[in-house]
């Protein structure tokens, strides 16, 4: 029997505000409820579902995006706070020519298992490499300290970031 | 999924505008800077203001620089900015270190020094979803009348859990507040009160606009040490900050210690200067100071770790912090 379970007792809120967002280089003008977070706007209005809704309260890092070059938790960012700023999500890392070296290295090194934490980790790592092209293992650990992975342990993730850093320095 | 309650979001560009918005919506408004403390609390229905006044775009609240014998920290400078600032690292390395150890990197990129000063107190029975709190009949701090920590107490014992205030206190920093009644300065050491429900002297219509740290004597050193379960992201279970004016041979002129993470406000350790003044800061003196601190610290079950263990860690972390003064 086709039956869709109702998972929330709260009605979908109505859009009341129009916000202008620049996400992955594209300009959007989108209607949102005034109390939306950036994560909700990305996922439910722009349909960019790469950023994950994990703990939804700033513990896990799965919603990490890059705002003005800095790794930021989109689940704690009121959507208006992202206006007039430059947002990059995991969807914006790859180019038309192929995946970002970080994405390629995560694949080659087996740094993702279930994959839920991966978009946030890729964003934290991309923000790190933009500022620190040749990070030490400790600097990588520190930059990824706010991204929890419950599958892999972190060794392969650190190796993948080191691999991507080496490739980016050559390019 | 934790959805926010509905609110209107105001983004003033000037301090006067921010203050007048707080007056206009009095009783149904809160200021928000980084949002890393308030937004999760709103998602837990601990606060449901109809209006938020965002401070991040207010020009007057920005900037880190030296002026008139002080280091001025604008209230909305992020903890990353404070931790990485060359001037903060040069003048007050312990402050840079404390700011750099708050939560994780993404949170430090958002959270502000003013917000860290005004951080809401925390408790096992408080920082939970509305559903969780309702199941237990709520608590003294929010919506209920029973304290699940002390069982009998009429006073909220939620813990002050911020890292930078103890360091700011031992450095004799001053918080500058502006509100409808004008501007006033409150030493960070006097900024907190022993009430877990509202533990600061900031009035609802007031904003912390800046923190001023006196550049002080060159002989002064400060250090800090922090206990937490996971070094990557957790709130402190115990934070110790110490400062000392010492000669080259480590003879102490003045010594201060502040611990927090235990009760509703940071505690300045009593009797330290009397023990230490005129003596060399050696292992015997450090042991005496640690013992004196232990007698004053009584952790409660307001966090989900064994309070006996937290108490046992007091002298350990006091020694750790004092040894970093060398």
Description:
The complex is a heterodimer of chains A (171) and B (326). By secondary structure, chain A is of the alpha+beta class. Chain A folds into two domains: 76 residues, Ubiquitin-like (UB roll), CATH 3.10.20.30; 70 residues, [2Fe-2S]-binding domain (DNA polymerase, domain 1, Orthogonal Bundle). In chain A, 32% of the residues lie in helices and 15% in strands. In chain A, strands 2-1-5-3-4 form a five-stranded mixed β-sheet, sandwiched between helices. In chain A, strand 3 and strand 4 form a beta hairpin. In chain A, helix 2 crosses helix 5. The N terminus of chain A is likely disordered. With 326 residues, chain B is α+β, with helices and mostly antiparallel strands. Among the domains of chain B are: 116 residues, Uridine Diphospho-n-acetylenolpyruvylglucosamine Reductase, domain 3 (2-Layer Sandwich), CATH 3.30.465; 104 residues, Enolase-like, domain 1 (2-Layer Sandwich). Chain B is 29% helix and 21% strand. Chain B is built from twelve helices and twelve strands. In chain B, a hairpin with a 6-residue loop joins strand 11 and strand 12. In chain B, helix 11 runs antiparallel to helix 12. Chain B is globular, with a radius of gyration of 20 Å. The chains are: A alpha+beta (171), B alpha+beta (326).
